[in-house]
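Protein modeling request. Please complete all fields; requests missing the sequence field cannot be processed.
Requester role: graduate student
Desired output: 3D structure, token encoding
Chains: 1
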Amino acid sequence: MKKISAIVVNWNGKEVLSGCLRSLLDQDCEDFEILVVDNGSEDGSQALVKKEFPTVKLIENEANLGFGPAVNKGFEKAEGDYLIFLNNDLALQPDCLRQLAKLLDSDPTVGAAIPKILYYSSSEKNTSRETARINSYGVLVNYTGIACPNLIDQFDQSDLTLTESACGGIFMLPREVYEKVGGFDDDLFLYHEDHDLSWRIRMMGWKLMVVPDSVCYHHYNFNKGVLKFYRSEKNRLHILLKNFECKTLCLIAPAIVLVEISQIVHAVFHGWFFLKLKSYREIAAQSIKISRKRRQIQSTRKVADKEIVRLHQDIITVTGLKNPLVDYFLNPILKLYWICIRGLI
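Delivered output (345 residues):
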């Protein structure tokens, strides 16, 4: 088996970091290393790693760089042929890494292998497969860029599944894939950086697979904070503008406008209207940089949008939120419009 580098991103996560690292040290792989990239924690996380996990490589950033940029820092020090990125609030079953590497070893068309993520409560001894609940089984992405974990809150599954996007919480990919797609986009501080990387992996001709025999558990806490909405919305528009072909952008533009109107309404009633406006200003300020990245991506891609959109969802599903406006007004329109334009892409 090839060497594996596990890169854990941490920011003030001392309470959960220890459990994550212990589960990594308990892996049944023979050749792997663990790197912790700390984003300027102030809770003693660095001291914890140095004292209790001396074999772990610690990379200390002076400030919080976000998830993707922190992984890029970790990659610079990683030695593995396979790279696995994970959040600090996960605990892995002992064969989690081996099962992911096994798929990558056997199928060179797979660009990323993704474990099945269950809620942490499912790790309890009295929880059976029939009662275990899924937190993420890959990710569903609507054609306007809004993403949601696949099969969230559903019962356990056991099928090897093709997915559109990896969950940023944890996934493994070959070093060659990471290098060819250019790693994470440093301009995406937090949210949608996983979708963006997955999209670029697919544009280069690789597929993403969920491996049901690879299991981990997540201390899940849905964040409804306004900063999450702001960062998510800004990054969603950023990656749509740089990754879609011009023809596709023109075709889906009316749907994007409709979604933007609905997001503005949501922002007005939930206290982040001015942050929504700020997201537009920042996209405008980054337009030259986005255009530059777009030219590079479009000139090197191997797979056209016609193939990429095969896995796109025609409706919006939002984790933890039920909105009649979305369910009974927005989604029917998006579904009908997708039927009209999909064959034109």
